[in-house]
Amino acid sequence: MTDPRADIQGFLGGLLRCREADLEGYAAAFLAEDAVFDISAPVERLQGRRAILSGFIRPLRTALTRLNRRDELFIGGRNTRANGGDWMASLTHYVGRFSAPLFGILPSDRMVFLRAGEFYRIEEGRIVEARIILDLLDLMRQTGRFPLPFSYGTEMTFPGPVTHDGVIPPDRETGARSLAIVEAMLGALHDYDPTTFGSQSQTGSDGLWDDDLMWYGPGGIGSTTGWDGFVDHHRASFLGAFPDRKGGNHYCRIGDGSYAAVSGWPSMTMTHLGPYLGVAPTGRAMTLRVMDFYRCTDRKIAENWVLLDYIDLLNQMGRDPISDSNRLGGLPGQ
User: Fold this and answer.
1) Which Pfam families did the record assign (predicted)?
2) Do 129 and 186 sit in the same domain of this protein?
3) Cα angle value 192/195/198 (rounded, 5°)
4) What would the pLDDT profile of 59-100 be if each residue is shown by its tens digit?
5) Report field, pTM of the whole predicted structure over 0.85
6) 44 has which bridge partners?
7) Which of 127, 149, 163 has its CA nearest to residue 53?
8) Are both 179 and 229 inside the same structural domain?
9) φ, ψ for residue 123 (rounded to 5)?
10) Which of 17, 154, 158, 291 suits 306 as a labelling partner, its CA being 20 to 30 A distant?
11) What is the CATH number of the domain that holds 34?
């Protein structure tokens, strides 16, 4: 018997590589005719297999020549939230030569790594629902047209886990333990010191984060290491801008081996009360779509990869980062 995680992973890779003449027939094997994909801005909801192919898969195939998936994580499990279901989650890069516009973003005609977080609900071996966040801000950075005045951390291509075992992990029995560690951490994050931005039970010998944690954030935030780096390069600026933020509202939480993944659509509700990424406070109520992927040891979180729909968030702030990006000059030689 084959591993259903491997079946879906192989199918997703094949969607990008099969001949155009075979695409619709190939997709029918693992993608339900009435499947619904919710994708980060500006794509949004696609209903039905044909819409998914024309609104998401074909634009990727056209924009990125010699297109491949490079999965860094690919896990699956039973959703512990009330809506249940069997889900799979991946942290991947769409890799190819960016040779034609994609979702309004101008191409560089150079190799790019478009990172994505993906959650798939599976019924009878087929994908019936998906939520996907594409890091389009980071794609703009790779073209030399980054539309923001700065990033808080280090912008980089997401690495895979230090242990190199995140794709279809073999030790599935520890998934419940990994998810329990993550859920304990998430519960403690809601209360924080407004001066230090610390939360109870996060660090130290009894804390839930490893002292040498690696935190990988999306375009605009960037990556960092250690709890102090997490505070300095993300948490302090975010809580300063959105001090009333409320998180949670997850539609999916799964654990698989040393890994756990959670996502909310949206996950956060908040008010824009302080400056953020160069945008003055607007006083507007906002929401944020979130995906988090974690690698855990026996009792701590060692690595965290984060996808946030910052195109949608910036749109709510009154900014159009795609249009802003297209007004910039791009890489040397373009």
Assistant:
1) SnoaL
2) no
3) 35
4) 999 999 999 999 999 999 999 999 999 999 999 999 999 999
5) yes
6) 39
7) 127
8) yes
9) -130, 125
10) 17
11) 3.10.450.50
